[in-house]
Design a protein that fits this description.
The chain folds into two domains: 10-386, no CATH class; 418-658, Rossmann fold. The protein is built from 25 helices and seven strands. With 665 residues, it is mainly alpha-helical. Helix 22 links the parallel strand 3 (491-494) and strand 4 (546-550). The termini are far apart. Helix 3 runs antiparallel to helix 6 (144-166).
Length: 665
């Protein structure tokens, strides 16, 4: 490497290789080797800050508009081709293998926002963190870091141009980036505890990391390759490596990004300095390792590796699972193969294209915008036509989904004057939404108006614990709306999850131990659950309405929608099976049923509808209808469309009885 060469620095690619490998190892979660490997993204931020500054400094001639146009032309050529390919492939594979489930809307929004560099904003508005179990199934989750970088690129080039032009004669120009970095660091420290999603995903709490790399360039500038002290260079390199190793092993999500990102950023800065400053003749053994062909090649692939590794992981996790030995061998081979193809067939040809370099920035940006629009529209079309692309049984949405499907078979209607003007209000969590087909049938059969208040995660009268405090404001708004609209004799139906979830529990410990643990938890929380239920019923009965509560339904240890296809039946999450012994479920629901009895003693008019006997008529409860093999449940606890239709006669009879009508046999 020439002392003053700025075109290529092998050691930086070696550092990129360490960053991307740490992230991949963390995400594979094999033997928990690198519990803090997610800090590799922070390494990328620092490296990007330096590399972008170097690139901007080499093209500093001309005015601001031309300067920015040239930069964004090169960024589009660098980022977009591989990104567009990965996003589109991920949308197609999602449609093929992953049914539309409770996270699908969020996943689709994340993917569409990723085309525009805004997926980090979508993720910051969601309830799940980067480390939440639900995030494991979002193939676009990793694009948050690209969003941060792309938003940084909107602001930074102009700031850097000011520094290039006026640093010699303006203190403000010299201090602008350090001041903004300090404000960002303070924001990061405050948000880590007060707004952790914003601190993790959004630019204000991450700007300082990219700015750190940029400030390193501003400090060392043209002094690259000027350090002749081998001990000092080795000390910087070893110290930086030590900081990174500490981060890889000890960084924890609850203290991230602050303070652990500080450790990672400091380690990366030290290693970058040790790569950039030493003269060629003082290269240390560790530096030679960073410059070896294997690491530098992985570094060259790092962008494509990062893009491909996560969606491949998600689709393996959804289908076969990641625990199988053959998957653990195939996964890295597939990821590296895709990354190599992406780099050699997409990244390099586009970046080295002579016609692209000769094209005006305006034309390049216009073509890039047109490409983004085309890929976005194609992806939207995919999300709206998943039934045609799906390889899963769940493509039969009439059977599987609790949508508002119109009934295919003729429906006998009930013509009774006592039903005139009646309203059915529904308050509940996602289990209220899982009755949508049932409500459509009831509305058509009885001619009543169904008014739904569905709020995911906001159960009402759960019988398991007190109703969530965070749901109090929307719940209060729902109460007031019912108060304004309800008339005497109207019914308020309260469906909810009223059994402890059975999926994802360590059943290997033995069923008796798990059941005992769940019952102990229910007993501990029952006083709070009873107090909350009494408060809710007191509020509702003040409205002069009838209250109908759904008794606990059967639950299962696995999800039929995930365990019914040829490509996922071998997944370890399906091993617990799709059946449960009836007596076990009755044991788990006994405390809640006893609480219902106590509530009826306090409020004799309280009605209870019990779907359990209909869904589980035999000693062995199944997620599938024993009469025709159709799914009664979509996942481990939410009903399918077919399950709705099976329950419709029972629910209709319960409503008619409350309105004083004797249902016809």
């Amino acid at each position: 490497m020439s002392r003053h060469s700025r075109s290529y620095i092998p050691g930086i690619d070696g550092l990129r290789a360490i960053a991307v490998l740490s992230v991949i190892i963390f995400h594979t979660d094999y033997l928990n080797i690198l519990p803090g490997g997610f800090v590799g993204v922070d390494m990328f931020f620092v490296i990007s800050g330096y590399v972008i500054s170097q690139s901007l400094s080499e093209r500093s001639s001309g005015g601001l508009i031309g300067y920015l146009g040239d930069f964004y032309r090169r960024r589009c050529a660098r980022i977009l081709p591989a990104l567009l390919c990965v996003l589109l492939v991920s949308f197609v594979l999602s449609a093929m293998f992953m049914p539309q489930f409770w996270l699908s809307d969020h996943i689709n929004r994340t993917g569409l926002a990723a085309f525009l560099g805004l997926s980090n904003g979508v993720l910051a508005l969601h309830t799940d963190t980067y480390f939440s179990p639900g995030s494991d199934l979002n193939p676009f989750l990793h694009t948050w870091s690209l969003g941060v970088e792309e938003q940084f690129y909107v602001l930074f080039p102009a700031l850097f141009w000011v520094w290039l032009r006026y640093r010699e004669r303006s203190f403000v120009a010299r201090m602008l980036l350090p001041m903004l970095a300090f404000v960002s660091l303070v924001t990061c420290a405050l948000q880590t505890t007060t707004a952790p999603l914003s601190a993790f995903y959004l630019l204000p709490g991450r700007f300082w990391e990219l700015a750190a790399g940029a400030m390193l360039f501003q400090v060392i500038g043209a002094r690259r390759g000027s350090l002749a002290s081998a001990p000092l260079a080795n000390a910087a390199l070893v110290s930086g490596a030590a900081f990174l190793i500490v981060s890889f092993w000890f960084a924890r999500p609850e203290q991230f990004p602050f303070p652990w990102a500080l450790v990672t950023v400091l380690g990366t800065l030290l290693m970058l300095s040790a790569i950039l400053l030493p003269a060629p003749h003082v290269a240390s053994p560790l530096l030679r390792v960073l410059q070896c062909r294997t690491l530098t090649y992985i570094g060259l692939l790092s962008y494509s590796l990062y893009l491909w590794h996560w969606p491949v992981r998600v689709f393996f996790k959804w289908t076969t699972g990641l625990e199988l030995v053959w998957v653990q061998w195939v996964y890295p081979v597939l990821v590296f193969s895709l990354a190599a193809m992406s780099y050699h067939w997409i990244e390099r040809p586009v970046r080295s294209s002579i016609s692209l370099r000769q094209r005006s920035p305006v034309l390049t940006l216009a073509m890039s915008g047109a490409a983004v629009v085309f890929f976005v529209l194609t992806s939207v079309a995919i999300t709206r036509n998943t039934e045609q692309l799906s390889l899963s049984q769940t493509r039969d949405t009439y059977t599987w989904y609790a949508y508002r499907h119109w009934p295919r078979d003729p429906l006998a209607t009930v013509d009774d004057p006592r039903l005139q003007g009646r309203q059915l209000f529904v308050m509940g969590d996602s289990h209220a939404a899982a009755y949508r087909t049932l409500f459509t049938l009831i509305s058509q059969q009885l001619g009543v108006k169904v008014i739904e208040y569905e709020r995911g995660g906001c159960g009402v009268l759960t019988l398991l614990a007190s109703d969530s405090a965070k749901c109090a404001p929307p719940r209060e708004a729902d109460f007031k709306d019912i108060e304004a609209r309800a008339r005497p004799g109207d019914i308020v139906f309260l469906p909810s999850l009223r059994m402890p979830e059975l999926q994802g529990i360590g059943w290997a410990r033995g069923q008796e131990a798990v059941v005992s643990e769940l019952l102990a938890r229910i007993e501990r929380d029952q006083p709070a659950a009873e107090a909350s239920a009494l408060a809710t019923l007191s509020r509702l009965y003040a409205l002069d309405v009838q209250v109908l509560v759904e008794a606990p339904k059967p639950l299962f240890k696995a999800a039929p929608s995930r365990c019914s296809d040829w490509f996922n039946q071998m997944n370890p999450v399906c091993a617990p099976g799709l059946t449960m012994v009836r007596s076990t479920l009755q044991k788990l629901s006994a405390p809640q049923r006893a609480l219902l009895v106590r509530l009826q003693q306090r409020y004799p008019a309280l009605a209870v509808w019990d779907p359990f006997p209909v869904l589980c008529p035999t000693a062995m409860c199944s997620a599938y209808d024993p009469k025709n093999g159709k799914p009664l449940f979509f996942d481990s606890n939410h009903l399918s469309g077919h399950g709705n239709r099976v329950l419709a006669p029972s629910f209709s009879a319960a409503l008619q009885a409350l309105w004083g009508i004797t249902p016809l046999e």
